[in-house]
């Protein structure tokens, strides 16, 4: 193991940081007063009567009685404060020299136009709108326009398949879909509209599809349903009066993988979410709106993009960078070139990206001027100490502290992280709960463990940006998060406390995998495999992977009819199955390897022993097999190991 290192907070940062060390004591003394103060950073139309209503736990209401418009807070109020000329986004398209700077005044006009256009399409407060877009400014405009008129959005990551899109549209009953002809990916236009056409064919209630033209690709067109963005938004008025919505008005639904096959619709509401994201963005990144150039290098289709590309940064009047494409297009120094060009001061990204850059070598970033950087952030999975130190030294020049931020789609906001200038950094540890947040590591019985021990991460207090429920499924909300330990939020992560009491996250303890920072459910991929006519049974495990953190490893039993007499499972069949998963869920879910096996290891009660399959996938000696119904199975599986390897 890496010798444990500790980096003290830089003194000059401490002298000017947005928050001071007494913030923890302040929040401990009166947690609700602390969040109330954070809420006062925003503009409310009507002030709340009560900070928190937790009487009906685990159903929370924050800033009860307050009224607020999220889009007004993200855009209009900065223009009204005289900052209309300030850049909200330096947008960088993937093709070189395809850039666009958007000021707050321009953003306001665009959001008003889009709000008017959506209203024109019949969208009313409470109606759901699905957004399936590349990383272009219109995506932000679409989200804010929805927020402005009180129509909850559900952004579906552009890498998801038409089937995944269809399921999400149906689950939240969206009536309008906003998309584009496509976006640029790895140097070429990639299409999006065909997936929408396919999905919407099975969603009879979708009445309009609003289409941004980004690449100029040919698209199929249905006059009764499809509307060009430019025709509807481009011609709309830039005048729009924002309506103040109840603090608990739904802001968005974001689908994420759970332990069953059906994705969960995480519901976030308006006031608390905006308070939680804006406060943590300001405090954890020490955000100075006058001077910082902030870059979250994530996709808007994930919660990280929602909270730290859109709502948090805009609420704070930040200038952000937004990048459309991949890190290696047209060359492997693209990120560093963007940082140099736009003088980025804060970079927030995932460990999987850092590990990839490490593999490509330090000489690539070394060619660029990264001296404007002053702070680094990490999110999405545990950051291994090697990657942390490389990030700190090579990208941060040894001077930038690294904020390892733990949180989830469900938490909406950062929860566990160091604070700049206050908390030391230890490579691999997210350190401690942020002020106003209660986190513990508990044992099987729900008792707090002592320093030096491990267990499950739980959250002990409600927090402003917490999920309110699962869309349409209060019961599953209670079961999933609030039933494992009485009165505690079960995060699904393993964790340990070191001797100083600092928190180290150890990965998921359930059937959720983390592949390149993307959450995937083993069950969802198993269902996708089993939906293929040639597959009888499937088991999926997340095995450790040096590049992606975990990788999807599948084991399948074929149907007898799948192969003709004497025929063997060949590479073409494996490829067919991998593509099938990609079609059902999306390319991110494609198994890295698929092994055709005669049987799966099961207990006598019929439960698949994934632990043994993980041993096989990680090429370890297989552990205890005595509880298997048939102890020869593992030998048969290992003999099959030579086949079914991934080759791309
Ligand atoms: C994992 C992403 C360790 C964790 C914001 C969590 C992390 C899941 C960290 C949520 C971190 C996220 N250290 N693990 N700093 N950040 N995770 O919903 O397992 O896509 O439960 O939200 O990612 O993933 P989600």
Structure at a glance:
Helix content is 31%, strand content 23%. The protein is an alpha/beta fold.
Report on the structure:
With 648 residues, this protein is an alpha/beta fold. The chain has a domain at 513-645: 2-Layer Sandwich (GMP Synthetase, Chain A, domain 3), CATH 3.30.300.30. Helix content is 31%, strand content 23%. The strands form nine sheets. Strands 5-4-17-16-18-19-20 form a seven-stranded mixed β-sheet, with helices on both faces. Strands 7-6-8-11-12 form a five-stranded parallel β-sheet, sandwiched between helices. Strands 21-22-24-25 form a four-stranded antiparallel β-sheet. The longest helix is centred in the first third of the chain and has 17 residues, at 104-120. The chain is globular. The two termini are 31 Å apart. Residues 642-648 have low confidence and may be disordered. Residues 256, 302-304, 379-382, 404-409, 430, 491-493, 505, 507-508, 514, 519 line the site of 5'-O-[(S)-ethoxy(hydroxy)phosphoryl]adenosine (WTA).
Share of helix among residues? 25-40%
CATH topology of one domain, what is it called? Answer: GMP Synthetase, Chain A, domain 3
Count of distinct strands = 30
The span between the termini is: 31 Å
The overall average pLDDT, rounded, is: 94
* Dominant shape: globular
Strand order of the largest sheet: 5-4-17-16-18-19-20
| Residue runs with pLDDT of under 50 for 5 or more positions | 642-648
List keywords for this structure.
single chain, 648 residues, alpha/beta, GMP Synthetase, Chain A, domain 3, 7-stranded mixed β-sheet, binds 5'-O-[(S)-ethoxy(hydroxy)phosphoryl]adenosine
């Amino acid at each position: 193991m890496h010798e444990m290192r500790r980096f003290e907070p830089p003194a000059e940062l401490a002298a000017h940081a947005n928050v001071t060390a007494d913030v923890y004591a302040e929040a401990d003394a009166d947690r609700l007063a602390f969040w109330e103060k954070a809420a006062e950073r925003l503009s409310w139309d009507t002030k709340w009567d009560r900070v928190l209503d937790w009487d009906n736990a685990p159903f929370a209401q924050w800033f009860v009685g307050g009224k607020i418009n999220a889009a007004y807070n993200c855009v209009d109020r900065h223009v009204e404060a005289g900052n209309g000329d300030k850049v909200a986004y330096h947008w960088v398209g993937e093709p070189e020299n395809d850039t666009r700077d958007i000021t707050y005044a321009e953003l306001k006009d665009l959001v008003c136009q889009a709000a008017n256009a959506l209203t024109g399409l019949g969208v009313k407060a409470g109606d759901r709108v699905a957004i399936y877009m590349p990383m272009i400014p219109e995506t932000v405009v679409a989200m804010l326009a929805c927020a402005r008129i009180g129509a909850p959005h559900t952004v579906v990551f552009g890498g998801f398949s038409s089937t995944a899109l269809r399921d999400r549209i149906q689950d939240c009953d969206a009536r309008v879909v906003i998309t584009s002809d496509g976006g640029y990916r790895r140097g070429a236009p990639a299409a999006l509209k065909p997936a929408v056409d396919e999905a919407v064919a099975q969603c009879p209630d979708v009445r309009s599809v609003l289409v941004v033209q980004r690449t100029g690709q040919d698209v199929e067109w249905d006059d009764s349903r499809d509307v060009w963005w430019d025709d509807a938004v481009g011609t709309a008025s830039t005048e729009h009066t924002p309506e103040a919505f109840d603090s608990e008005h739904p802001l968005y639904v974001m689908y994420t993988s759970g332990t069953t096959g059906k994705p969960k619709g995480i519901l976030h509401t308006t006031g608390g979410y905006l308070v939680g994201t804006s406060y943590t963005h300001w405090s954890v990144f020490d955000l100075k709106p006058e001077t910082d150039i902030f870059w979250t290098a994530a996709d808007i289709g994930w919660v990280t993009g929602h909270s730290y590309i859109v709502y948090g940064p805009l609420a704070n009047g930040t200038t952000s960078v937004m990048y459309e494409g991949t890190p290696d297009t047209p060359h492997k120094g693209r990120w560093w070139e963007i940082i140099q060009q736009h003088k980025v001061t804060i970079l927030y990204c995932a460990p999987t990206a850092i590990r990839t850059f490490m593999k490509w070598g330090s000489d690539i970033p070394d060619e660029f001027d990264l001296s404007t950087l002053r702070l680094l952030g990490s999110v999405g999975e545990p950051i291994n100490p090697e990657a942390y130190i490389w990030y700190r030294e090579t990208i941060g020049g040894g001077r930038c502290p690294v904020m390892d931020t733990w949180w989830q789609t469900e938490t909406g906001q950062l929860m566990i992280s160091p604070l700049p200038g206050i908390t030391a950094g230890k490579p691999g540890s997210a350190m401690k709960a942020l002020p106003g947040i209660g986190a513990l590591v508990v044992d099987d019985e729900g008792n707090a463990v002592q320093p030096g021990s491990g267990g499950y991460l739980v959250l002990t207090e409600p927090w402003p940006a917490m999920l309110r429920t699962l869309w349409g499924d209060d019961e599953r909300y209670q079961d999933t998060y609030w039933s494992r330990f009485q009165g505690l939020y079960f995060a699904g992560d393993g964790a340990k406390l070191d001797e100083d009491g600092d928190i180290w996250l150890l990965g998921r303890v359930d059937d959720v995998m983390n592949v390149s920072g993307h959450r995937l459910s083993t069950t969802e991929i198993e269902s996708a495999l089993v939906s293929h006519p040639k597959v009888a049974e499937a088991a999926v495990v997340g095995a450790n992977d040096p590049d992606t953190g975990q990788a999807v490893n599948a084991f399948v039993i074929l149907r007898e009819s799948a192969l003709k007499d004497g025929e063997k499972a060949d590479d073409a069949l494996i490829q067919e199955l991998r593509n099938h998963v990609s079609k059902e869920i999306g390319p991110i879910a494609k198994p890295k390897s698929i092994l055709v096996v005669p049987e799966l290891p099961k207990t006598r009660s019929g439960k698949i022993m994934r632990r043994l399959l993980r041993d096989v996938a990680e090429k370890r000696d297989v552990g205890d097999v005595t509880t298997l119904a048939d102890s020869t199975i593992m030998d048969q599986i290992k003999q099959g190991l030579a086949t079914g390897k991934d080759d791309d």
